[in-house]
Amino acid sequence: MTEAEVYQALLEGPDERRVLLGAAVAPEALARYAAGLANREGGVILVGVRPAGRVEDASALEPLQLTHVLHELSGGALLPHVERVETAEGVVWALHVPKSPFVVSAGPGPAPYWDGTRLAALPASREVAAPPDPTARPLPEAELDDLDPAELVRLQDRLRERGSPLAEAAPLERLRALGMASELEGRWVPTVTGLLLAGRPVALARLVPQTEVSFYRHEGDDVDYVFREDLLRPIPAALERLRELIQATNRFHPLTVGLFRVEVWDFDVEVYREGLLNAFVHRDWAAHDAVQVHLHPDRLEIANPGGLAPGMTPENILRHPPHRRNPTLAAALARLGYVERAGQGVDKMYRLMLRYGKEPPEYRAWPHAVTLVLHNPGFDADFVRWVSEAQERQGAFTLDYLIVAAALRRGAQPTAALARALALGPAATRKLLARMQAAGLIVPEGQGRGRRWRLAPTPPERGAPPNRTG
């Protein structure tokens, strides 16, 4: 959304697909307005608008703060795309809320419905039940004894490390709060999430054999592998073992930047951990196929059953609102500190790989499977130094800044090529490039349609005049 579009929206006022709110809107009210839009046709909420139709600066708000609030207060149903729009009067946040296929609630009372001017109760004719969550399903053929005591202690320790009151709750209350157990006909039984997080191997083999993860190590680009291990363990234990297997041959390269020593790994632990967690959280647990991990010297491939969400493609995955295929499992992993509720895993992988001079993550999608490829063609030491020096002088980069800088490290690029790398429209790309030019991070070459951009040789100090050479 552009500055001109914001002012046009203020001129026209709210309508069936647009809500205008002040910067000081209460979190509970924001969540109800977002739910009201989702329960109609979806739309956009502009946060940072005065009642008189003027902008008030909402720069004190953070995008992650906004997504966390909406996700928490809606029980995980609301995950809008948040866009920062800079205007002459200050920052406005545009929250793009998709239409929900089922009823979204936010707080006590009836589900809200945005009628174009105010919130109302959702008409009965529009009520649609939420789709079944396979990871919330109770397992009547299982017993609580099918949960491994050692794995339950592991989960309790993680809650204690995070300062969660659940760590000191009664065991059954902790299982219920994490969605790991459910009462069924007068007795408590594990849910699918319960077994996925703490099931004994024999129970996993009997009830959810698709929990298995197959790890392969290859010496080169050959299909044949030199080592294989099949893991039938709950997710936390599988993550630990996969880390051991990958680290066994993982190498790091020391790099000195100023007074600091940076270690650039062939495969960054945080990056592949996010990739593995995404495979577990977003896979199709109804499919009886295993997650597969293939480690080659030049790449790590993580494949999981289940295609991308409708409307999501490898090209727009960075911008697409997060999709909740297994909300109970995702919520439990979030409370345990394994994943972010707001769906920041893809952003985190991009940020770390680009910052360390690597290629961005690659997604390969089929109707019933997705493969994440983390490439290891070496790293660009000069670029890592450039980014480190720029961030030391000017502060942390946004992900968009990193994407542009990474695209330019091999040479000058036209605006259209940078728009494709960013997955943004032409107007938003031009505005971003103008900000980077003003900061002295990039410089233009040529004019008009032939204009290209390249990295500035040395990033200036914060507030220094931009480098206008070239």
From TrEMBL:
Region (Disordered) location: 449-470
Signal peptide residues on this chain, from the entry's feature table: none
Please provide an example of a Pfam family that matches this protein in its UniProt record: HATPase_c_4
Task: From the Swiss-Prot or TrEMBL record, give the protein name.
Answer: ATPase
Gene3D superfamilies found in the cross-reference section: 3.30.565.60, Schlafen, AAA domain (3.30.950.30), Winged helix-like DNA-binding domain superfamily/Winged helix DNA-binding domain (1.10.10.10)
Which source organism does the UniProt entry give?
Oceanithermus profundus
Identify the domain of life: Bacteria
